[in-house]
Amino acid sequence: MRVTENIARVIVGVLFIFSGLVKANDPLGLSYKMQEFFDVWSQYSMLHGLMNVLNNYALIFSIIMITLEIVVGIAILLGRNARFFSWLLLLLIIFFTFLTGYAVMSGKIKTCGCFGDCIPLTAI
């Protein structure tokens, strides 16, 4: 069981580090992708004001997201504070699954931007 856990930890850690580094190459591109998501979610009157504010700070959020992905990936890879970073990782995955899932199902976004422009992932 410990071997499987270590293999999973290495795979997930490397995946998040890779994803973060690919996006770090073009943080402005990630901010444009985030603005697309904010535009989709701003269609709800309840979220319209919040999404407009977030839209103005998309570049800052993209830099924070890139940093968070790399830091969490390194922490998972090294096994530091495993419980905390595992929960943080789970929350990030759940949040972005719902965010991306709805946006893709709306038909307004064709690629998720998970790996920047390096590996464009599209809906099936």
Please count the beta strands (DSSP E, at least 2 residues each). Answer: 1
| Alpha-beta content class | mainly alpha
Beta-strand percent range? under 5%
Which range best describes the helical content: under 10%, 10-25%, 25-40%, 40-55%, 55-70% or over 70%? over 70%
Determine the number of helices (DSSP H or I, runs of at least 4 residues). 5
Rg, nearest Å: 15 Å
What oligomeric state do the depicted chains represent? single chain
- What is the H/E string? HHHHHE
Give the overall pLDDT as a whole number: 83
Overall form: elongated
Q: Largest sheet, described in full? A: none
Uncertain spans: none
Distance from first to last alpha carbon: 33 Å
Counted up, domains total 1
Explain how this protein is built.
- The chain is mainly alpha-helical.
- The chain has one domain (about 1-115).
- Helix content is about 75%, strand content about 5%.
- It has helices at about 1-25, 25-40, 50-55, 60-80, 80-105; one strand at about 115.
- Helix 1 packs antiparallel against helix 4, helix 2 packs antiparallel against helix 3 (about 50-55) and helix 2 crosses helix 4 (about 60-80).
- It is elongated, with a radius of gyration of 15 Å.
- The termini are far apart.
Short note summarizing the structure:
The protein is mainly alpha-helical and 124 residues long.
Give the topology, please.
Blueprint: H1 2-24, H2 27-41, H3 48-56, H4 58-78, H5 82-106, E1 114-117
Helix pairs in contact: 1-4, 2-3, 2-4
Which tags fit this structure?
75% helix, elongated, 5 helices, 124 residues, mainly alpha, single chain
